[in-house]
Write a structure and sequence with these properties.
By secondary structure, the protein is α/β, with parallel strands linked by helices. Helix content is 44%, strand content 9%. Helix 5 (117-125) crosses helix 7 (145-151). The longest helix is centred in the middle third of the chain and has 18 residues, at 80-97. The N and C termini lie far apart (40 Å).
């Protein structure tokens, strides 16, 4: 009902819903949502075709674990930048093969999702290498663990670190 109300009362607003569950995606897309932000990295094979049927946008995020699973190990990646790049390329291809319009796909390297703070920083330093096709990129950086590791602050005290991270990636100096 909330998605329906926003779609009806604010028709110029783009509605994005974070979900990895196909039944939820079906419901919110039917109610007027425009974008599905899948934090699972397309673990559900029926999600991309569902998004395609609705002509919706799709955010594909890198992760090496199922949703709600915390996994941060120094030895998880041989080359974190290469692994994230290859994962995103494969998932974008999967989405396009399922009928999602390439122009409606955003990639998200998943800062802190199955990455140690050092791995996240390495990924952020190489954003240009992650998406050779130049798709739009979503970066959810606010108050993340890597900021806490760098600033030694708790989440509610990470505003300055968040702003610095946004400025750094925005300037290309990641």
């Amino acid at each position: 009902p909330l998605v329906e109300a926003v779609a009806r009362d604010l028709p110029d607003v783009v509605i994005s819903v974070d979900t990895y569950k196909p039944p939820v995606a079906e419901a919110v897309l039917g109610a007027g949502a425009h974008v599905i932000n899948d934090v699972s990295g397309l673990r559900a094979p029926e999600l991309a075709p569902l998004v395609a049927r609705h002509g919706a946008g799709l955010v594909v995020m890198h992760t090496a674990a199922a949703p709600k699973t915390r996994l941060q190990r120094d030895d998880l990646y041989g080359d974190v930048v290469g692994d994230v790049r290859d994962f995103l390329a494969a998932k974008v291809a999967e989405a396009v093969d399922a009928g999602v319009d390439r122009r409606s796909i955003l990639v998200d390297p998943g800062p802190d999702f199955t990455k140690t703070p050092a791995q996240t920083v390495e990924v952020l330093r190489h954003l240009a290498d992650l998406d050779p096709e130049g798709l739009p990129m979503l970066l959810a950086l606010s108050r993340k663990d890597f900021i806490g590791a760098l600033t030694r602050t708790r989440p509610h005290d990470r505003l300055a670190g968040t702003l610095a991270a946004v400025a750094a990636v925005g300037s290309g100096s990641g």
